[in-house]
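ingest -> validate -> predict -> emit
validate: passed (alphabet ok, no gaps, 532 aa)
predict: started
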Amino acid sequence: MSVYIPISIVKMMRSIYLAVPVSAVLLAAAPAQSQTVTAVMQSGLRLLDPAITTVSMTTYHGYMIYDTLVSLDSNYKVQPQMADWKESADGKTYTFTLRDGLKWHDGAKVTSEDCIASIKRWAEQDKMGQMLMPMVSEMKALDDKNFEIILKEPTPLVLQGLSKIGGPVPVMMPKRMAQTPSTEAVKEHIGSGPFKFIASEFRPNTKVVYEKNTDYVPRSEPSSWTAGGKVVNVDRVEWITMPDQMTAVNALLNEEIDYVEVMPFDLLPMVEKSKDVQLALIGKLGYQTVYRFNFTHPPFDNKLLRQAAMYAVGQEDVMKAVVGDPKYYQTCAAVFGCGGPFEYTTGTEWIVKPDIEKAQALLKEAKYDGAPVVLLHATDNPNLSAQPIVIAQALRKAGFKVEMQSMDWQTLASRRTSNKSVGEGGWSMFVTNWPLTDMLDPLRYPAVAANGARAWFGWPDNPQIEQFREQFARTGDLAEQKALTQKIQETVLDEGVIVPLGQYQVPSAYSKKLTDVIEAPVALFWGAKKAK
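emit:
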């Protein structure tokens, strides 16, 4: 049962939160002499293994303490990071050479064997990795600093996969950690990256502390997205969770914190008036918000019922609820994003505008028996909390029985991995969002893979989509790739594999005492300087 809370009550609740001192939220203070950046992130952190999940907070955590072999700059160009590489004339052999000065946080040297084990583990969970590995003949260490990836046939997937920004992130970790089954999270958190994770101060969903890795040797190139020199200019970074958005914004205005990753749209006027706060957009392309069906259990194991739900939900209603201000959003049903290289909008009108009569007709045709739709609702993530409320209302209007279950985002991220039936604690639908940089093509976007039990949560099984994706991976011809992408999108929308809800940009806010903040599709904290 959903409950409507009047806006007056919401404002009163916010005022109660404001009565709580921010110092109570900050828990323990940083050491007196350390220079600390304190950030309120989009949600708390619980999942700590970036190589096996797509959760954004875990991806951010990964970039703090781990490093990658290669990386992507702001021009979408692959650059060396931990290693340089050479490609053979026939395109079948990539030789990687680790750069000098690479050490794990426990002092051990990074070796080729560590990297090979890390690539294998990442590839078991990542959709690009799953497509790549059948094309790999062998990965072998030549010595401690050099190793080869030998292919059965040329493919751009080696560099595309190892440089991908979104989760699962192809981070390098010690071999002993990389030998952990990819179905289990690692127990240690030892990377070679620019920050060290302080396990003794970790409070799941509440506080995360990182300290500068003084042994880290950054590259000499200028920083650009995840590429270039990762120069750390502060001693500590603390991520804290605040239970109320108004509390976080007031803490920023009062200089009690330094950074708010996701600014609530309705509170933007407060920040825009401040001469001490800087607004910036997270990634110039922005985000697409989507919903996902569970294909393995009723009611959405039935294609007609998936289509009924898709006809019921309209993008404009969702975007108004999530963003409000039209200058920050657009309706867009292109599976690979509006503004991307594979934008395709023909025949997608039924995804954008609701048609309740059509939805009701499909329910009747499918002989819907009232099976409950368990819709997961993340309450603590401002980017994801409004969508389920709008979706639930639309589905009920069409005739679905909806049970909305509310929880924090990190709990939802764990819950969605369960393939149990609804009656055993499973789920029917959930909402998430993707940076457009993670979904620009059929290989980069995990949610369009339809390989059954190995697919992203929801587990669609469609051999035709997989055939098209394999063809995409094997061609370098742009015209052929565009034709294949259109076929994939048409099938994805017809089957309801992933359903776009609209596209929007997310403002961040930070103190003007912070300079050189990197604006990228992920939250990065190297490079930033803090005035005393």
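The chain has a mean pLDDT of 92.
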